[in-house]
Amino acid sequence: QVQLVESGGGSVQAGGSLRLSCAASGFTRTPYCMGWFRQAPGKEREGIARITGGGVTRYADSVTGRFTISQDGAKNTLYLQMNSLKPEDTAMYYCAAELDSRCYVSSLTPRFVSYWGQGIQVTVSS
């Protein structure tokens, strides 16, 4: 039973920091990639960060230099460190596991996501 459970969301003032965590369990095969996506009301779900099993990362232009994706050594927990937060970062954030190897070379598309977390709200006030 694959489960992805996000934690660490909440409200923060602009310029502040927040760290999201995603506890992963139940995989029968190791995901090729793990990622973070977000969706604001009225907008499409967008990929913001991805990490491969080998530790290669990719970021959306909107968060490059501010957000850092990482995972623990056992790859049981995925993290997203968010610094210099802006009001436009306000969204539901989703942890994702990608079991399709095409995630290695793809853009930050949800096309190859196999499993999603339930999402966690991040609100940044100005």
Name its key features.
four-stranded antiparallel sheet; seven-stranded mixed sheet; 126 residues; single chain; mainly beta
Structural overview:
With 126 residues, the protein is an all-beta fold. It is built from no helices and eleven strands. The protein has strands at residues 3-7, 10-13, 18-25, 33-39, 46-52, 57-59, 67-71, 77-82, 91-98, 115-116, 120-125. Strands 2, 4, 5, 6, 9, 10 and 11 form a seven-stranded mixed sheet that branches. It has a four-stranded antiparallel sheet with strand order 1-3-8-7, with no helix packed on it. The radius of gyration is 14 Å and the shape is globular. 31% of the residues are buried.
Q: Please report the total strand number as a whole number.
A: 11
In angstroms, what is the radius of gyration? 14 Å
Can you write the helix and strand succession as a string? EEEEEEEEEEE
Poorly predicted regions: none
Tell me the structural class: mainly beta
Helix coverage percent of residues?
under 10%
Distance between the termini: 40 Å
Shape: globular
Q: Strand content of the residues, in percent? A: over 45%
The main sheet comes to: 7 strands, mixed
Return the average pLDDT rounded to an integer.
95
Count of discrete alpha- or pi-helical segments spanning 4 or more residues:
0
